[in-house]
Amino acid sequence: MMRALIFALLCAAAGVAGAAETIRIKDIGKIAGWRDNALTGYGLVTGLAGTGDSARNKATRQSIANMLSRFDMTVVADDVQSRNAAAVMVTASLSPFARPGDALDVTVTSMGDARSLVGGTLILAPLKAANGQVYALAQGPLSVGGYKYDLNGNVVQKNHPTVASIPGGATVELGVANDVSNGGQSVTFVLSDPDYTTASRVAAAINGALGQNLALAQDASGIEIRIPEGRRARLTDFLMAVENVSVEPDRRAKVVINERTGTVVSGGDVRISKVAVSQGDLKVTIVTDNSVSQPLLVSQTGPDVRTMRVANSRVDVTEQGETGFVAASNNTVADLVQSLTRVKTNTRDIISILRAVKAAGALHAELIVQ
Length: 370
Prior knowledge:
about 20% helix, 4-stranded antiparallel sheet, Aspartate Aminotransferase, domain 1, 3 domains, single chain
């Protein structure tokens, strides 16, 4: 783990020391209006082998009765006693440029006390958006990545058998009309990580690549790009040219620490002011040895002669032979970690030291503890 930590930090430092890295702006943001839409629906899964909802779930019984009524069959909900059906919620994500007839992946989750959805089939269920309008219809056999079997109190279960999926199980009935061009006049590019420096660089890079003063950074997140009159008829080609413009984004100094796994990730340009770190170790161990004392001769018996249990305890104190001392002056996190490694400091102690350096005000970066 320590070698991997040092390797990651040194590679980050080497990357900063080398040539500046430029990436396409499409990898650091997106055009405003490009978003997925959540769809939700209520449905009924049938065909379960006695693992569906019990008779206590009135909603499931009512759903079965309502479904049968559509086929001219009148059944009272209280008369439904089947355990081969389950009430479920159906969810899907509608892409921003979905067209009628496109297929969507569907996730099905149980609502009642069904034990498993293995072998079930989803009956036709409408999927609605937040505005209450139906955009897709879902139906088909379920794919469950687990199972659950129980008998006489013995249960064998793998994964979550009450959650299933239907790849391509929904068909889009109503597409989404997205006007990303603000009426054909301009588009707005939105950064995934808002930053004033990066926004300004993106605007300058677009203007330089297209040869016109078209882009203007509105704030730390949005860059408004004016569409030339000659390019409005071919908006797709214009946006392709914009997305492939390369830029050098600015990066904030961050150190990410995961205490559960003992992982530290830092950029090579994270600076540390003058600081001295002293690290030592004191280990205290209490050991108890249990022994039995009994009479030497079996004939030695009496009311006061019996086997005794004796506990012998000792305290062992182990102190590290040398105390590690590291002095850092205007160095990076990678330099500090490399110095701590020379004095054989483990990863857990390095995490504690970095937190102490941040508390001392010497670590000039945002410390993120996961």
